[in-house]
């Protein structure tokens, strides 16, 4: 009977089957109960031995039942685990790694290099008044830079009754920063009244990178572009300082000494003398071509005055370089527009 029960239990493939099989052996009218009933007619001695034997059988059947229940539960669990299994060997979903824009990368390099040479880094408004963008920079009223063809103007006057523009260069920052610097060091001035500061103060040494705007668009011009203004004003700052500073900067920026610098006479209303700075690589894909990277010059005395300073005491240099241009040269990009189209296939190359 024990073997028969075991065989029946093992055949059960579901818990319900197993409970049915159990009923056949251990149930109210099951085989064990039958055997017990069959003892009624036996003698006391026989009852003892037979009863003991039936009990042993009953216990063996119960053990077999428990084992089979456990086996069924295990099999069920295994099935469930297999159904829900994760293939941990599959490659995971990659988390997209962002990167800085190449123009931002170039700007960060510029800030780090000039920072290491003791330059402050300043920031200023992109919407400028006529005075900061032009007048303060000694721009004659009829200078072509003021014309509507170059500069984006805002067609309503500001609250102060003057016209504003999207700054066409970072040069307004020369005046803004210098005036704040003079004020900060206790210099009193009143540009409109011609009252200038001629006392002592720490040198002005700053770069001002940022967005600039001009009505222009082709492979090398974008209506929005980036410049970095540089300004160093003190009591004894000369063109030779401009050359050494710019050379240090450009060799650090391109990580090579194998390049030459050339100052080409030029004209800007706010510098006198003025020069374009060209560079030429002595090796690499751009070898042998003069490339214009910056405007520069000695700050015009009228601009020194508009800073609130006495040009008899203060002198200095300024430069304004195209950041996008420098980024194009450094990363070998031939079309400026790629910088501003936001195509990830292009941008993801600069991680
Ligand atoms: N502001 C000039 C430009 O945009 C560059 C420049 C800056 C030239 C400072 C001289 C000195 O072209």
Automatic annotation (TrEMBL):
Catalysis: reaction(s): tRNA(Phe) + L-phenylalanine + ATP = L-phenylalanyl-tRNA(Phe) + AMP + diphosphate + H(+)
Enzyme class: ligase
InterPro entries documented for this protein: aa-tRNA-synth_II, aa-tRNA-synth_II/BPL/LPL, Phe-tRNA-synth_IIc_asu, Phe-tRNA_ligase_II_N, Phe_tRNA_ligase_alpha1_bac, Phenylalanyl-tRNA_Synthase, tRNA-bd_arm
Main localization of the protein described in the UniProt heading: cytoplasm
Sequence similarity: Belongs to the class-II aminoacyl-tRNA synthetase family. Phe-tRNA synthetase alpha subunit type 1 subfamily.
Keywords in alphabetical order: Aminoacyl-tRNA synthetase, ATP-binding, Cytoplasm, Ligase, Magnesium, Metal-binding, Nucleotide-binding, Protein biosynthesis
Binding site residues for Mg(2+): 272
Chain's gene name: pheS
Domain of life the protein comes from: Bacteria
Cofactor binding notes: Binds 2 magnesium ions per tetramer.
Subunit note: Tetramer of two alpha and two beta subunits.
Localisation per UniProt entry: Cytoplasm
Residue ranges annotated for the Aminoacyl-transfer RNA synthetases class-II family profile domain, each copy included: 118-341
GO terms for biological process, alphabetical: phenylalanyl-tRNA aminoacylation
Presence of keyword DNA-binding: no
EC number(s) recorded for this UniProt protein: 6.1.1.20
GO cellular component: cytoplasm
Protein name per the record: Phenylalanine--tRNA ligase alpha subunit
Molecular function via GO: ATP binding; magnesium ion binding; phenylalanine-tRNA ligase activity; tRNA binding
Cofactor(s) the record lists: Mg(2+)
